[in-house]
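Example complex used in Figure S2.
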Amino acid sequence: DIQMTQSPPSLSASLGETVSIECRASEDIYSNLAWYQQKSGKSPQLLIYYASSLQDGVPSRFSGSGSGTQYSLKISGMQPEDEGVYYCLQGSKYPTFGAGTKLELK
Amino acid sequence: EVQLVESGGGLVQPGRSLKLSCAASGFTFSDYYMAWVRQAPTKGLEWVASISYDGGSTYYRDSVKGRFTISRDNAKSSLYLQMDSLRSEDTATYYCTTESPQWVMDAWGQGASVTVSS
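Predicted assembly (224 residues):
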């Protein structure tokens, strides 16, 4: 199985601050990487797929980048509605999720 | 609008069975692979199983292989998960999802809660 190491486990950001979350795969996943946001008590929502493609309806302050084994999600200008837990998902082989990053507004 | 509505969750004793259903609407069901993803209480997300467009191919995580069966009825736009020999570690909220190429889970249902306990 491909292991996904996500960091940091949690972070706190001020309004308007730029935030980055990282995921490292245990082997090359060829950009088959998606990012999800899960707000408290809700279902996950797809934000980014194929490492950098923005899902329809997702604000442009969200962006993804990376290749090989290293990937990142950036939020350019933290908003109150961005609070939640963020997960990466690799889809190169049988899918595996990262452990999640809890993002809070400072 | 894509809608996925799970049903069939509940409390079940270890070793018993339960069948989850997912009613889909707002898209052409037979055009999508479908999947089940679960989330144990206060834990992260875990892929469980996937099924191809016509049900001819199925895929499972190792821990449920031989115990869970994913199936679909395209005429009814419905997805199912038959769960047998349930264990306490199967306790979770189970989400029905659409699945695009390379295992991208696009749309998610609201989830069905399954508790395995005596």
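The longest strand of chain B covers residues 92-100. The CA atoms of residues 66 and 84 of chain B lie 9 Å apart.
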